[in-house]
What we know:
Layout lengths: L8 E3 L3 H12 L4 E4 L3 H10 L1 E2 L3 E5 L4 E4 L2 H5 L4 E4 L3 H11 L8 E4 L12 H8 L6 E6 L4 H5 L4 E6 L3 H11 L4 E6 L2 H23 L4 H21 L10 H12 L4 H10 L4 H6 L7 H15 L4 H10 L5 H9 L11
Parallel strand pairs: 1-2, 1-6, 2-5, 6-7, 7-8, 9-10
Antiparallel strand pairs: 3-4, 8-9
Amino acid sequence: MRASSRAAAVIGGGSWGTALALHLAQGGYEVPIWVHDPERVREMLSVRENRTYLPGFELPETIHPSSDLSQVLRGQNLVIWVVPARFCRDLFRRAAESLDSSARLVIATKGIEPETGKRMSEVALECLSRPPRALAALAGPGFAREVARGDPTAGVLGCADPLEGEQIQEALTHGAYRFYTNRDLVGVELGAALKNVIALAAGVVEGLGYGSNTSAALITRGLTEITRLGVACGGSPSTFAGLAGMGDLVLTCTGSLSRNRSVGVQLGQGKALTEILAGMKMVAEGIPTTSAALFLARRHSVDLPITSGVEALLSGKISAREALSSLMKRPLKGEDAWE
């Protein structure tokens, strides 16, 4: 497919990438989509459906699956990046020669690089041979299945350049998916990533059989923890009260479609992490993000008690009930907005 003025490429053929491709196609775009697995490409081309990651949604003829990264990127002016965080560095390097410098790159990956603590926009700028025209992060509360079926949804686009952010907002907003802009790229990326860690903890609370009191306290203090680290890293406090912070946090901690919450529920029920992961097709970004968050916390001397408890549980050092008990026994203190 030749690139046109009404085209947008999607890099990543999981549930979220497929849902965003459907949204773009519904807005009149031609959408080349890069899919890692050639077998998945054949499936999507033959049955016009991503039966592995987003079954039940027909792919229109304007969505063009391919496993040829350079072909998908060639000449595209708008690129939506939806690849699991642990694969991003390698793929950005592979994309370096094919991504046009005039492209607007929108990163919809919600994760942090575990080894470095870097946000995906930082990884992109390190790996691309030339910076894109604009770099933005797409975040906010949005389950793939609900976006795909057209449920009213609100998202946020973090972009340091307000004019470019408005251009991307105009390009992506249509139908039932409405986007807001935010100049705080740092905060938007960190809020989107860190809420997955708190969602693991929220799932543990449910798996242990506790009720709404416990969940509400966990989510509220989790938001405080996210804000504390996000501000230390350069984000704005107000960002974490918005769609990329509180909005995405509430969705991921309470929604039945949340992969991270589901992992937490099973951990709370006593299942081993290896057993849980063996039964999953999709990535729960909160697992690698936990260690990345603690990496950043040590760098900035920030206390993350919930995240520390999640890390101890994931590594098998303590049980789910012990993790919660340790939080309840912490020294008493006053409540502040994010300190």
